[in-house]
Write a structure and sequence with these properties.
By secondary structure, the protein is mostly helical. Helix content is about 80%, strand content about 0%. It is built from 14 helices and no strands. α2 (about 40-60) packs antiparallel against α8 and α4 packs across α7. Residues about 285-299 have low confidence and may be disordered.
Length: about 300
């Protein structure tokens, strides 16, 4: 358990910056997935991230990880691998803003999961907000059906929703992980676990990218590592439910980057659905006593 304390506002700002860098990484990764496929985009980016993570670990002077920290690194790395494959596969098939809006169910799910795994209290407000958030998802999907739709888009949407469920699990593990390890250690071991997991399929799927793709891979790895470090620091100083609300800043980034880089436009249905989900999640997270004591006791 860390004894470091900072203001909630600073932790929130650092988490929001981390989300901003992650949104930029999403745009770079979408370009890579369209060019070389989801597996190779993730594999080669993660290989670079291992090196960057090792530097962050050494600079952070974290020392050797504890046994408990290693278990959390392994658990989060495995969850993140499946989450990333589903998300980026889906992202290549749906507009960025729409994909991001669907992931906004993750904070609600994280609150429910925290209640089950960490002993946090969940009242009727959270349950009502969960139903409202699902309504927002339906609005986004209805809008998708009224505009450009088809098997690819539908399957991409399902992949994004599956990724959102895993991201909720990731948020809960992130809180526990940040109490057991420093940000540099987290960045290195998460990259290592993801790379090792993806490498299992390398003999059949790995293809060395062309030279033109390597600057994008390096940029994506740098953005991902910096984002993970910032989020690891923030989650070490704030409650899961409180910091999870920073996720909503990513919609602005996704809409802007989707338009500027891929020419994607945000539909009224996507805006309405995202707004419903955000309001529902903020309503559920208004309670600021989201059991930091319960989380820290289990850490």
């Amino acid at each position: 358990m860390t004894s470091r304390t900072v203001s909630p506002a600073l932790a929130f700002a650092i988490a929001a910056l981390g989300i901003g860098l992650f949104s930029m990484m999403d745009a770079v990764m979408k370009s890579l997935v369209l060019a070389i496929g989801v597996y190779n985009a993730l594999l080669w980016r993660q290989m670079i991230s291992v090196g960057l993570g090792a530097v962050a670990w050494k600079l952070g002077k974290s020392g050797r990880p504890s046994g408990r920290a290693l278990k959390l690194h392994l658990a989060r790395g495995l969850v993140t691998t499946a989450m990333a494959v589903l998300f980026f596969w889906g992202l290549a098939r749906v507009p960025m803003a729409q994909a991001i809006s669907l992931t906004y169910i993750a904070p609600i799910l994280a609150l429910l999961l925290a209640a089950v795994t960490l002993g946090e209290r969940v009242g009727w407000k959270t349950l009502v907000a969960s139903i409202a958030a699902l309504g927002g998802v339906l609005v986004v999907m209805i809008g998708q059906g009224r505009e450009v739709s088809g098997p690819e888009t539908f399957h991409g949407t399902l992949a994004i929703l599956g990724s959102a469920v895993l991201y909720a699990v990731n948020l809960v593990i992130a809180r526990l992980q940040s109490q057991a390890a420093r940000p540099g250690e987290i960045a290195f071991f998460q990259a290592l676990v993801i790379t090792a997991t993806l490498a299992l399929a390398a003999p059949w799927l790995a293809v060395v990218p062309e030279a033109a793709q390597w600057p994008k891979l390096i940029l994506a790895a740098g953005l991902a590592t910096a984002s993970l470090w910032l989020l690891g620091w923030a989650y070490a100083h704030g409650d899961t439910g409180f910091l999870a609300t920073t996720e909503y800043t990513s919609f602005v980034y996704a809409a802007a980057l989707g338009f500027l880089v891929f020419g994607e436009r945000v539909s009224a249905f996507t805006l309405a659905g995202a707004a419903i989900i955000v309001v529902a999640c903020l309503y559920a997270a208004r309670r600021r006593d989201i059991a930091q004591t319960s989380i820290e006791a289990s850490a």
